Amino acid sequence: MPDRPFHHGNLRAVLLDQAEAVLRERGLDGLSLRELAREAGVSHGAPRKHFIDRNALLDALAERGFVRLADEIHQAAAHAPDHAHALQAAGSAYVRFAVKEPALLDLMFAAKVDAPSEAVRTAAERLFAAMADIMSAGVEAGVYDASDVDRLTLVLSATVQGTASLIASRRITTSQGEGLIKDAITLFLAGASTAH
Amino acid sequence: MPDRPFHHGNLRAVLLDQAEAVLRERGLDGLSLRELAREAGVSHGAPRKHFIDRNALLDALAERGFVRLADEIHQAAAHAPDHAHALQAAGSAYVRFAVKEPALLDLMFAAKVDAPSEAVRTAAERLFAAMADIMSAGVEAGVYDASDVDRLTLVLSATVQGTASLIASRRITTSQGEGLIKDAITLFLAGASTAH
DNA sequence: ACCTGAACACCGTTCAAGT
DNA sequence: ACCTGAACACCGTTCAAGT
Question: Cα separation of A87 and A46, whole Å?
Answer without folding.
Answer: 44
